[in-house]
């Protein structure tokens, strides 16, 4: 099981959401092609004060706002070719049931108590902050994230988070890769070492949330703190705490893919809640960085919030997916700009991979009767490029195990460059008359190299890699990683479809 964070349903999808969805989709596709039975889930975070306030401002009910946003995210998933197997909306009945079960278990474990909360709350972050974390500007106070905080004073149920500091530290120590990449882990460990305070987990001053069990209401009605609600979506997706059933086997999740601003919730609160509820912890929290438009944070006031669906239409879905996953070292912040995207499309995709495919496949169409060429005696150069191509999958797999898609792609494209050098150096076109058998062998080796590269490219660029495999006549059942090996190499003489370009150059509007 692999998940994305569940976006707040109070606003339309932006490029950060698109990035997270694409990366998670690539991880899910990778595992699927590697023979795993994968559950890929996403969802919508539809409760909380932020949601309620946005709905009021827009003159909508929270339900209507949630439906509108959920439809936008569903369209984003389609447009990015990154559909999940399930979408957990926190307003669903199955989710409410799961959250209530979490609550009952935490209560039964003696971890909930009634008290009074008096402190600072950021509605934008849906998070509580200590006085000493805040900064003051113009008489107003702000959270470390830059969002305004307000004073909250109300009766509240508390979760004994303080009791879990030692247990969490022991878990991080026993599972060094629980939080990855490492520098996020170090931040979390340092934070927990300073000690944890108990967490307010219910609210009485608004009502757009899941009500706590009736027996726990006081003179006021309490709704669950939105993060208890939201984090539980991951378990809801599996039915592990409720109906059981056939998806329960996916819990614990293998990876929660999230952005760096919500690591505390996923690496501290969530495992503590699960420990309290006596449920197994997710195996990894995989943290990605933030995307900036030429170094600037996206914001409505700067006017640089980009609709990911527009980007996919402008550059191409696979092109956008490739850019995100190749350009940004996973875990670090990254920049995107028109120039950077166009450069990746034209240099890596059109010039390197596209040209290699187009040149070799059109030579095959013309000179080998449109069939996989014959392979005669191999030279050292042939054997060398084939050996490098044969190594790509294992190297890319190791990178993907580390959640480093940029390394996986760098490895694949290193061999694309090697194959271009091989092709240019061997000059098959010059051997057409003088040594046709040699020409055939070079073309065979190039085509087989392309097959070896296209297979691990599928999770990143599903359509284009699929098209390349179509051109090589690789059948639908022969595209998983188990079929990447030599035993499934291209069959000499197999007919090939007429080649068509797979990676067009990006032309600026004025040149079109
Ligand atoms: O945090 N670049 O929702 P959200 C990259 N509902 N990633 C970004 C980003 C950016 N500029 N901006 C946001 C929430 N993200 C909660 C999650 S999970 C139980 C509840 C990432 O809509 C962000 O880090 O604000 C998060 O992983 C995801 O987008 C949803 O953010």
UniProtKB/TrEMBL annotation:
<dbReference type="GO" id="GO:0006431">
    <property type="term" value="P:methionyl-tRNA aminoacylation"/>
</dbReference>
<keyword id="KW-0436">Ligase</keyword>
<feature type="domain" description="Methionyl-tRNA synthetase anticodon-binding">
    <location>
        <begin position="372"/>
        <end position="510"/>
    </location>
</feature>
<dbReference type="InterPro" id="IPR014758">
    <property type="entry name" value="Met-tRNA_synth"/>
</dbReference>
<dbReference type="InterPro" id="IPR041872">
    <property type="entry name" value="Anticodon_Met"/>
</dbReference>
<feature type="region of interest" description="Disordered">
    <location>
        <begin position="489"/>
        <end position="512"/>
    </location>
</feature>
<dbReference type="Pfam" id="PF19303">
    <property type="entry name" value="Anticodon_3"/>
</dbReference>
<feature type="short sequence motif" description="'KMSKS' region">
    <location>
        <begin position="297"/>
        <end position="301"/>
    </location>
</feature>
<keyword id="KW-0547">Nucleotide-binding</keyword>
<keyword id="KW-0963">Cytoplasm</keyword>
<dbReference type="Pfam" id="PF09334">
    <property type="entry name" value="tRNA-synt_1g"/>
</dbReference>
<dbReference type="InterPro" id="IPR015413">
    <property type="entry name" value="Methionyl/Leucyl_tRNA_Synth"/>
</dbReference>
<dbReference type="GO" id="GO:0004825">
    <property type="term" value="F:methionine-tRNA ligase activity"/>
</dbReference>
<dbReference type="InterPro" id="IPR014729">
    <property type="entry name" value="Rossmann-like_a/b/a_fold"/>
</dbReference>
<dbReference type="InterPro" id="IPR001412">
    <property type="entry name" value="aa-tRNA-synth_I_CS"/>
</dbReference>
<dbReference type="GO" id="GO:0005524">
    <property type="term" value="F:ATP binding"/>
</dbReference>
<keyword id="KW-0067">ATP-binding</keyword>
<keyword id="KW-0030">Aminoacyl-tRNA synthetase</keyword>
<dbReference type="InterPro" id="IPR023457">
    <property type="entry name" value="Met-tRNA_synth_2"/>
</dbReference>
<feature type="domain" description="Methionyl/Leucyl tRNA synthetase">
    <location>
        <begin position="1"/>
        <end position="360"/>
    </location>
</feature>
<keyword id="KW-0648">Protein biosynthesis</keyword>
<dbReference type="InterPro" id="IPR009080">
    <property type="entry name" value="tRNAsynth_Ia_anticodon-bd"/>
</dbReference>
<comment type="function">
    <text>Is required not only for elongation of protein synthesis but also for the initiation of all mRNA translation through initiator tRNA(fMet) aminoacylation.</text>
</comment>
<comment type="subunit">
    <text>Monomer.</text>
</comment>
<protein>
    <recommendedName>
        <fullName>Methionine--tRNA ligase</fullName>
        <ecNumber>6.1.1.10</ecNumber>
    </recommendedName>
</protein>
<dbReference type="InterPro" id="IPR033911">
    <property type="entry name" value="MetRS_core"/>
</dbReference>
<comment type="similarity">
    <text>Belongs to the class-I aminoacyl-tRNA synthetase family. MetG type 2B subfamily.</text>
</comment>
<dbReference type="GO" id="GO:0005737">
    <property type="term" value="C:cytoplasm"/>
</dbReference>
């Amino acid at each position: 099981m692999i998940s994305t964070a569940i976006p707040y349903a109070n606003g339309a999808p932006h490029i950060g959401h698109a990035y997270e969805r694409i990366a998670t989709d690539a991880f899910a596709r990778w595992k699927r092609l590697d023979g795993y039975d994968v559950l890929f889930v996403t969802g919508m975070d539809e409760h909380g004060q932020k949601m309620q306030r946005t709905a009021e401002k827009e003159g909508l009910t929270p339900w209507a706002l949630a439906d509108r946003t959920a439809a936008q995210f569903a369209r984003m998933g389609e447009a990015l070719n990154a559909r999940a197997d399930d979408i957990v909306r926190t307003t669903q009945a199955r989710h409410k049931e799961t959250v209530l079960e979490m609550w009952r278990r935490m209560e039964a474990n003696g971890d909930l108590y009634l008290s009074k909360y008096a402190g600072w709350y950021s509605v934008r972050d849906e998070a509580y902050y200590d006085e000493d974390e805040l900064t003051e500007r113009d008489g107003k106070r702000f959270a470390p994230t830059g969002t305004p905080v307000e004073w909250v004073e109300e009766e509240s149920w508390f979760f004994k988070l303080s009791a879990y500091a030692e247990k969490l530290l022991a878990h991080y120590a026993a599972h060094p890769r629980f939080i990855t990449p490492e520098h996020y882990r170090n931040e979390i460990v340092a934070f927990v070492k300073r000690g944890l305070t108990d967490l307010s987990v219910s609210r009485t001053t608004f009502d757009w949330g899941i009500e706590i069990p009736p027996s726990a209401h006081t003179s006021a009605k309490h709704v669950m703190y939105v993060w208890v609600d939201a984090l539980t979506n991951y378990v809801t997706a599996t039915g592990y705490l409720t109906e059981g059933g056939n998806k329960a086997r996916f819990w614990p999740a293998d990876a929660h893919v999230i952005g760096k601003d919500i690591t505390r919730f996923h690496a501290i609160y969530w495992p503590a809640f699960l420990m309290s509820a006596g449920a197994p912890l997710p195996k990894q929290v995989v943290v990605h960085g933030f995307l900036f438009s030429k170094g600037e944070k996206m914001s409505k006031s700067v006017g640089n919030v980009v609709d990911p669906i527009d980007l996919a239409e402008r550059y191409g879905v696979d092109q956008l997916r490739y850019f995100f996953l190749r350009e940004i070292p996973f875990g670090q912040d990254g920049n995107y700009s028109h120039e950077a995207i166009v450069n990746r499309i034209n240099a890596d995709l059109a010039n390197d991979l596209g040209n290699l495919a187009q040149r070799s496949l059109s030579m095959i169409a013309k000179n080998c009767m449109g069939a996989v060429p014959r392979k005669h005696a191999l030279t050292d150069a042939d054997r060398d490029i084939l050996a490098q191509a044969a190594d790509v999958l294992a190297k890319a797999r190791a990178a993907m195990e580390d959640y480093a898609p940029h390394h996986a792609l760098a490895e694949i494209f290193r061999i694309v460059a090697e194959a271009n050098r091989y092709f240019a150096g061997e000059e098959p076109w010059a051997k057409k008359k003088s040594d046709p058998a040699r020409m055939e062998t070079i073309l065979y080796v190039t085509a087989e190299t392309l097959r070896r590269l296209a297979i691990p490219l599928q999770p990143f660029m599903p359509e284009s890699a699929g098209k390349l495999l179509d051109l090589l006549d690789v059948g639908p059942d022969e595209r998983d990683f188990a079929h990447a090996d030599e035993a499934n190499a291209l069959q000499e003489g197999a007919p090939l479809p007429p080649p068509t370009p797979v990676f067009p150059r990006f032309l600026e509007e004025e040149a079109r």
